Every structure is written in C-alpha cells, then in structure tokens.
Amino acid sequence: MAQPVRLSRHHSHQSTDTSLYSGLDFTAQALRHNISNPNKELADSFREAYGNTLKPHHSFVVKPLFSAAMSATPYRKDFYAKLGGDDAKVQQQLEKYLSALEKIVATLNQFLARKEAKW
Amino acid sequence: MMAEATKLTARRDRPPLVLFELCFSTSLSSASLHVSNHPSRIINQLNRLLNKHTDTMSTFFDTVKKSWEDVPVDASKDNAISTTEFLEAAESLTTLFGRSFYRIDGAVSLAKLYFRCPGLGSFQACQERHVWQRQGKHCSTSWIDRSELTRHRKSVTASLLLPHFQRPSRTLSSTSLRRRSTLPPRALFGSTGTPFPSSFAPIY
C-alpha cells in the first residue's frame, strides 16, 4: 500500500482542490485505521487520521471544534451495520473500495508533491 | 398535491404508516382522491417499499453512484485521473456522511459542518471548474490544478477554503454597497447594518 504524503502547513494552500484531496486522504486513512484495528472505535480512527492530514492545515480555533465533532461519529457496530446487513460482504467491498481510494489519493499526493503544483 | 407527495416520499422508512396514509387519503380525502388514488402512484410507492425491504442484503457500496474502482487513471498520460468519474466518486463518498453517520443528535449540525460541508464545497468548486474547462477537452484533475496555479488565483483558493463565511460576507458587502450606491445620503453604518440580519446573523 502506498503511504500518503504528509502535507505540512507550508503547503496548506496549494490550490482549491487541495482541500478536497485532504478530505479524501483524511477519510481514507480513517477507514484504513479502523479496518486494521478492529478494537478501535470510529472516533479514535478519525482522530488519528485528523492528526496526519487536516490538522496541520487548521488554525487553533478550528482544531478544538474538529475534535468535538469527532465525538459525534457513530459507534463502530452502528456504522458497519448501516453500511450493510452482511458484515463479511461489507468488509470485502470496503476493502476493495478503500484500496481504490488509496490508489487515487496516492496519485494525487504524488502530483501535489511536485514543484509545479506549489505556489 | 405536491405537499402530500412529499410527505409520502419522506416517510418511506415507515411502511405501515405510508400504507395507512395511502388508504386514508384514498378513502377520506376527496380533494386529493384523483391524485393519490392514481394506480401508477400507488404501484410505484408499493414497489419502492417492496424493493426496500426485500433487498436487505444490499450494502452501501452496491447503492453508491460511482465507486473509486471505476475511476480511470491513465498511466500513459502521467497518471491522469479522469475528472468526471473522480467527481462522481467524491460526491458518492460524501453520502457516507449522511444523517445516520452522526451519533449525537445535538452535535449533528456541528459535525455536519466539518465532515460533510467542506468536502461538498470543495467538490462543487471543482465540479464548476470542470464543467467550464471541459469545453477545452482537458479532463484530468492535475490539468485543472495546473490551470489554476498558472492563473495565480490565490484569492479564490483561499476564500474557497472557508466556504461558510465567504458567502455571507459577500452578501453583506454586495448588499451594503448596493444600498450605498442607491442611497447616497445614508451613513455607512446604515447601509451595512441593514443587510446584517440577512447575511451573518443566521450563523452567529
């Protein structure tokens, strides 16, 4: 699995799409962390992903608000139940979906790391 | 007529109530009899209910509009990602953060602000630019990024990163300037104070 590039605050405002890309990276990392750690709650996974992706871009005002918003994420059992009734099928499809998303995010991050994508 | 149709659609999650409403409106409400009693409407409604409850094995990934697996990446063109499929997949991903995603009812608005809206705002900005630039047949995301960077539109980028405050501030500025131009004798406070309730007040 390709490791996503961790963007620093220096690169925070590269282009309009960076905001969308960071959101995708945040979601992908959170879901991957949650799949890899079956004992972790969803809020823990999203907090972990937030620290790696969006946190460097947020100001001291937004950070505590975002941390509070993490508490609103559903419990693990409720979330996977909402994704589908058959847990094995959900896990299989989520793995495929997530692998494809990580591939896209890695491609985007490689592009964003280039000199031509910075200003 | 429209209100009743909306009510039926909004209460699909409660089939007994919907069926009751169908029967009730059919038998008692003479004003809406010719509408709610239409066979095609009832059949469509029942089919929808039937599909919803028999297809219990479908998952979120079966119902998603576009999966990330369907987004083509052209390795021959420097890993160019097709923008149309990319934006559709991104839009589909935002449906993951629907109402059922949030645990605490009171925190729904706050969580929605930070989970769903920024993603959707960025997605819509990209989509608008994609529609504009599709005429030039440049359809990869990296090309769109490059085009923005070469045009040095930093102010647009920076403002798009704060979509929730950008729109009210624009409304306040434009409304106050308009009032100022149309009513020259008024003081500046008068022209900016009046549009405040319609712009910033709802979010404070």
Order of helices and strands of chain B: HHHHHEEHHHHHHHH
Strand content of chain A: under 5%
What ranges of chain A have pLDDT less than 50 throughout 5 or more consecutive residues?
1-15
- Biggest β-sheet: strands ordered side by side in the sheet of chain B: 1-2
Mean pLDDT of chain B: 58
Record field, number of beta strands of chain B: 2
What is the oligomeric state here? heterodimer
In short:
The complex is a heterodimer of chains A (119) and B (204). Chain A has 119 residues and is an all-alpha fold. In chain A, 63% of the residues lie in helices and 0% in strands.
Considering the chains and any ligands shown, give keywords for the structure:
heterodimer; A: 119 residues; mainly alpha; 5 helices; B: 204 residues; two-stranded antiparallel ribbon; 13 helices; 2 strands; flat; disordered N terminus
Could you describe the 3D structure shown?
The complex is a heterodimer of chains A (119) and B (204). Chain A has 119 residues and is mainly alpha-helical. Chain A is built from 5 helices and no strands. Chain A has helices at 16-36, 42-52, 62-70, 76-83, 87-112. The model of chain A is unreliable at 1-15 (pLDDT under 50). Chain B has 204 residues and is mainly α. In chain B, 65% of the residues lie in helices and 2% in strands. Chain B has helices at 2-10, 15-28, 33-36, 39-54, 60-63, 83-94, 108-115, 117-133, 141-151, 154-160, 163-182, 188-193, 196-199, and strands at residues 73-74, 80-81. Chain B has a two-stranded antiparallel ribbon. The two termini of chain B are 37 Å apart. The interface between A and B is large, with 44 and 53 residues.
